[in-house]
């Protein structure tokens, strides 16, 4: 009786194996497929949406986005962005050793050489209409030929660091003409050259500020 039962079970197993071989796809029982059995589904987060001026998070509704990045050494130029509009950089020489200056809504910027253009920079600032934003950044060196009266003019616009800028200091600044910016936004930052800390040979690391400005101020 036991032998009969064993033969019956063997015959049933053979028929079941033949059925599986004919009707189950060959790749259905692959090693990879068997390993996936019992695993929890992986939830993949969607790729983050790019924000204006490469902010990590969007500005609240009714706000402008801005980002100012200083230059780093001679190879990495400064970048000024306002509402995803990037100031254009060329080899045109102008505006003095504050090497990039952007006026909103009239967007203007340029790169300069080491000659003295402090007077032209001062004229540009003075002619900017009331209700304008001014965004500034250094590239390479922004101090050696910067005249004291130009420093004083930028200081009158609210800069606390322009008087401290030294040879090859990295400096960024945002200010306004005719109105005040909110107290809770970062308006200025500076990083001095230090041979023991410089990221690049002879130059400090880039620095940046970014934030959001209520549209109803402009």
From TrEMBL:
Annotated localization: Secreted
One GO MF term attached to the UniProt entry: carbohydrate binding
Superkingdom: Eukaryota
UniProt cross-references to InterPro entries, sorted A to Z: FAM3, ILEI/PANDER_dom
Alphabetical keyword list: Disulfide bond, Lectin, Secreted, Signal
Signal peptide feature range: 1-21
GO cellular component, one term: extracellular region
Domain ILEI/PANDER: 115-178
Similarity-based family: Belongs to the FAM3 family.
Protein name (Swiss-Prot/TrEMBL): FAM3B protein
Species this protein is from: Bombycilla garrulus (Bohemian waxwing)
Gene (UniProt): Fam3b
């Amino acid at each position: 009786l036991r032998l009969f039962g064993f033969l019956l079970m063997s015959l049933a197993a053979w028929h079941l194996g033949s059925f599986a071989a004919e009707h189950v796809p060959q790749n259905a029982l692959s090693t990879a497929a068997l390993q996936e059995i019992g695993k929890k589904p992986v939830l993949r987060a969607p790729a983050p949406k790019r924000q204006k001026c490469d902010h990590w998070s969007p500005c609240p509704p009714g706000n402008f986005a801005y980002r100012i990045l200083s230059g780093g050494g001679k190879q990495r130029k400064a970048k000024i962005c306002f509402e995803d509009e990037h100031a254009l950089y060329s080899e045109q020489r102008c505006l003095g050793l504050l090497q990039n200056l952007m006026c909103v809504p009239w967007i203007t910027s340029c790169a300069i050489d080491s000659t003295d253009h402090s007077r032209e920079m001062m004229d540009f600032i003075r002619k900017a209409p009331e209700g304008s934003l001014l965004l500034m950044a250094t590239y390479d060196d922004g101090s050696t030929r910067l005249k004291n009266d130009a420093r004083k003019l930028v200081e009158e616009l609210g800069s606390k660091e322009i008087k401290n800028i030294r040879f090859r200091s990295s400096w960024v600044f945002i200010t306004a003409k005719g109105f005040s910016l909110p107290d809770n936004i970062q308006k200025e930052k500076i990083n001095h050259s230090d041979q023991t800390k410089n990221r690049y040979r002879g130059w400090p690391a880039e620095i940046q500020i970014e934030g959001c400005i209520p549209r109803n101020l402009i």
